[in-house]
Design a protein that fits this description.
There is one protein chain. With 360 residues, the protein is an alpha+beta fold. The protein contains 5 helices and 19 strands. Helix content is 15%, strand content 34%. The strands form 3 sheets. Strands 1, 2, 3, 4, 5, 6, 7, 10 and 11 form a 9-stranded antiparallel sheet that branches. A hairpin with a 5-residue loop joins strand 1 and strand 2. Helix 1 runs parallel beside helix 3.
Length: 360
C-alpha cells in the first residue's frame, strides 16, 4: 500500500511539474555534477567485462550494458525529489531509441542519434504486449502523459544524456577494537536525462548476462557473410507469408561502421531496403535502430516483404543463436554451413542461412 501511494505521488508530481514556470533555466546542468573523468570503453560482441563509461561520449553499446532506474527527479525550480517506487521506472538505451519501462508497459521514443540528440516528431509511443497485465493502469497512464509532455508530438526538440561517474571511493579504515574493516559502499554510475528544463537521474546496475550456447557470434562473424532468410514464423508458429515467397527472397547484410563508429545492418528484397544501426551484446542479443530509406516503387510482393521486415526489424530486440551444420553448404562446397536463428522480443522467429557476401 505504501509503495502504491508513493507511486501515485510520483506520477501526480511529475504531471504537475510540467505546468510549473521556468525558474532556473540551465541550473540543472550544475546539479549532481561530478568532475571525475573515466576512459571510454568500446565493448565488442564477445566482451563480458564491465564497461567503463565516459562522461564525454555516450557510447550506446556500453550504456546498454546497464539497467537504469529512475532515482531522482529535478524540476524546473531546481528542487531535487528522491524517488523509490515499486515497480520503478526503468530506462533502456538502444540504437535510435530510448525505451522507458514501467511494469510490463513500454514507452518508446525514437530519435535521430546520440550525437545531435534530436528526437523525432512522432513523440513517445506506448507499446503493450498481449501478455502484459499491468498492475496499476492509472500509474502507467500517468507516466505516458508525462513523457508525452516532455517529448511532444509534431515538434522537433532536443534532449541530452550525461554520464555521472562514481566519486572516488574512500579507503577502508581498520578499527582494531572492532576487529573489522569499515568501508564505504561503492557508488554506481548515474545517467542524467536533460529535456526541456528538467532532469531525470537514473542509477545504473550492470545487467546480468544470460548463458550462451553454440558457436560464438561476433561483429566480424556477422559481417563475413550475406544472410538469406530461409524460415519466418510468427508467435503462433504460423508461416509469415510476406517473408516466405521463394521468388522474392529477403537478405540481410551487416556492415562495418561508416561514421560515428556505429555498426549498420540492412535488409532488402531487391527493393528500397530497410535497416539501421545496431549493437550486439555479449550474450548475443541484437538491438537494431532505424535509418532513413528511399521510397522507390516496387512490385506489390516485394514491397510487402520489405514492409514486413521493417515492421519486425527496425527498433527491435532479439536473441541470436548460431548452429553450424555438418553437411556441405548447398550454395558453395567451400563455404561452412551456418543457420542463424533470430528470436524477436515480439515472438517471431526468423532463421537466416549464410551465403557468399557480394562485393560492390
Amino acid at each position: 500500500m505504501l509503495n502504491h501511494l508513493i507511486l501515485k505521488r510520483l506520477t501526480l508530481s511529475l504531471l504537475l511539474a510540467v505546468s510549473l514556470p521556468v525558474a532556473l533555466i540551465g541550473c540543472q546542468s550544475n546539479i549532481a555534477k561530478d568532475n571525475s573523468t573515466s576512459a571510454n570503453s568500446m565493448v565488442t560482441g564477445s566482451s563480458t567485462s564491465a564497461p567503463i563509461l565516459s562522461e564525454q561520449v555516450i557510447n550506446v553499446e556500453s550504456v546498454n550494458r546497464f539497467d537504469w532506474k529512475l532515482v531522482r527527479w529535478i524540476d524546473n525550480q531546481g528542487i531535487v525529489n528522491d524517488l523509490d517506487t515499486v515497480p520503478p521506472l526503468m530506462l533502456d538505451v538502444r540504437p535510435s531509441n530510448l525505451v522507458f519501462k514501467y511494469d510490463c508497459q513500454r514507452y518508446r521514443l525514437n530519435h535521430d542519434g546520440y550525437h545531435g540528440y534530436t528526437y523525432s516528431s512522432y513523440g513517445v509511443t506506448a507499446v503493450t504486449q498481449p501478455s502484459c497485465l499491468i498492475t496499476d493502469k492509472q500509474a502507467a497512464s500517468n507516466i505516458f502523459k508525462y513523457l508525452d509532455q516532455l517529448f511532444p508530438k509534431y515538434s522537433r526538440g532536443h534532449f541530452n544524456l550525461r554520464i555521472i561517474s562514481p566519486s572516488p571511493q574512500t579507503p577502508s579504515k581498520s578499527f582494531s577494537f572492532l576487529n573489522k574493516l569499515i568501508s564505504t559502499k561503492p557508488k554506481p554510475y548515474e545517467l542524467a536525462l536533460n529535456v526541456q528544463d528538467k532532469q531525470l537521474i537514473f542509477e545504473g546496475t550492470l545487467k546480468s548476462l544470460q548463458p550462451v550456447t553454440g558457436p560464438p557470434i561476433t561483429y566480424d562473424f556477422l559481417k563475413e557473410y550475406q544472410w538469406r532468410l530461409v524460415s519466418a514464423v510468427n508467435s503462433n508458429k504460423n508461416t509469415i507469408v510476406e517473408l516466405s515467397r521463394p521468388d522474392f527472397p529477403v537478405t540481410a547484410y551487416f556492415a562495418y561502421p561508416l561514421y560515428n563508429d556505429e555498426h549498420h545492418v540492412g535488409f532488402n528484397s531487391d527493393c528500397n531496403g530497410v535497416g539501421g544501426s545496431y549493437i550486439l551484446t555479449p550474450d548475443n542479443k541484437l538491438l537494431i535502430g532505424s535509418s532513413p530509406q528511399t521510397m522507390m516503387g516496387c512490385s506489390p510482393k516485394r514491397e510487402a516483404a520489405e514492409d514486413k521486415i521493417r515492421e519486425l526489424e527496425q527498433l527491435s530486440k532479439s536473441q541470436l543463436t548460431l548452429q553450424r551444420l555438418a553437411n556441405a553448404n548447398p550454395d558453395s562446397s567451400s563455404l561452412p554451413y551456418y543457420l542463424l536463428t533470430q528470436k524477436l522480443e515480439t515472438g517471431e522467429t526468423l532463421i537466416w542461412k549464410n551465403e557468399v557476401k557480394k562485393t560492390l
